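Replying to the earlier thread about multi-chain prediction with a worked example.

Input:
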Amino acid sequence: MEGDFDWAVIWKSRQILWDGFLVSLQLFGIALAGGIVFGTLLALARLSSWRVLAWPATGFVNLIRSIPFIMAIFWFYFLTPMVMKKLTGQQGEAVGPFMSAVVAFIMVESAYYSEIIRAGIQSIPRGQPHAALALGMTYWQAMGQVVLPQAFRNMLPIMLTQAIILFQDTSLVYVVGLKDFLGAASKQGQITGRLVELYVFVAFAFFIICFLASQLVKRLQRRIAVR
Amino acid sequence: MDWSVLLQTAPSGGMTYLGWLGSGTMWTLLVSLFAWVIAFSLGSILGILRTTPLPIARAIATGYVELFRNIPLLVQMFLWYFVVPEVIPKAWGDYLKTQFPNLVELPFAQFSMLEFTAAVLCLGLYTASRVAEQVRAGIESLPRGQTNAGLAMGFTLPQVYRFVLLPMAYRIIVPPMTSEFLTIFKNSSTALTIGVLELTAQSRQISEYTFKTFEAFTAATLIYIVITMSVILAMRWLEGRVSVPGYIAKAGAH
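Result:
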C-alpha cells in the first residue's frame, strides 16, 4: 500500500497549511487571553457574597459545561451576528465566521478557566483576604495584590495544561467551515484527493506541538513543587 | 418563538422533528455508552500497568496515553474514519466501505455501521487515555506502605492489586471518573463530523430545515442538561454506596 501515498503533497500545500495554522494560532491566543480575563471575573463573581452576581455566573458556567463544545460553537455562531446587529443597529453588516468562533471560544474557555481559577482562589487560606481587608485594603487591592498572585502561581501548571487542551480544541471550528489548520488540510485534501496524507500530517504536527508543550509543563510543575 | 415547530412532521417517513431529536439522543447515548465500555476497561488496564514495577508495561502504557492525549479528538476521528480504511489491506477497506448495513436512513442523510463503529472506537480509545490517568492517580494516591504490607504478608503482586489497591483506588476516583463520564457524552458530538446523526447534528438539521434555530438548539441543550443531571445524580448515589467510611471527608467537594 505504501507506494500509493504521495507525501510530496504536504510540501506542495505548505502555504495553505501554514495560513491555516496561523488561523488556529490566532484563535488560540485570543481565546486564551479572553478566557483567562473573563474566567477570573466569572470566578470572582461566583465567589461573591452578592447573589445577583453569584447566581448568573454559576448558571452560565454550569450551562456551558453541560453542553458539548461543538453545540456551544453552533450557539454562538447563531447568536453573535444577531446580538451584534442589535448592538450596533447596523443592517447587513455581517459578522464573519472567525469573529463568531472567537466569541464562542472566549465564552467556553472563560467558563472552563473560571472553574480552575475558583479552585485556585479557594486554595488560598481565607485568613489572607480577611487580613488584607482588615489592614484597610479595598476588595480589588486584596484580590489583586494578595490572593490572585498566589492563586495564579499555584494554578499555573493546570492553566497551562488547559491551554494545551484549548489549542487542541481550536480544531473544532472545522464544524463551521473555518479554514483553521485542520480545515485547511481538509479542503486541500479534498482538492488533491490526498486526505490520508494531509490528515496524518495534521495529527503528527499536533502531536509534536502538544507533546513538547506538555513535557515543558511537567518540568515546570516539578520546579514549582520543589520550592 | 414557535415551539410547535418541533411537533410538525419532518420530511422523513412520518417522523416529527421531535422524533429527530429523540433519534439523535438515542445515538448520542449509544455512541457514548459503547465508547465508555472500551474507555473504562482499556483505561483501567493502562492505568494499572503504569503503576506496576514492569518497565516495558509502563513504557507501553505511557506511550499510549501520550499518543492519544496529544492529538485532538476531531483529528483522531478523521484518522479512524478516513485514514484507517485506506491503510489496511484494500480488500478489507472495500469491505468496510460497502458491506456495512445502514443504521439510519433519512432523505437528507444516512449513516451506516461504519460511521458508528469508527465513532465508538475513536471516542473509546481516546477516553481510555484519560481514564488511565485517573486510575493511575487513584492508585498512586494510596500510601506505598499498603503495597509493601500486602507483599510482606505473602500476597503476589496481582493479589495486592486485586485485594488491596484496586478496591480503594476505584472508590477514591469516583468523582474524577464522573467528570470523565460526563465528558464522553459531550465529546460524542464530534461524531457528527463523520456523519453520525447524534443529538447536536439533528438539532442543526432541524434548524436548517425549519429556520427555527433558537428552538432547535434550546431543545438539544435541554436534553444535554438532562443527561448531565442524570449522570451526576446516578454517580452521587454510587459515590454514597461505595464511599469508604472515614476516608473521603469532603463530600460533594467537586
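The longest helix of chain A spans residues 14-47.

Feel free to reuse this layout for your own posts.
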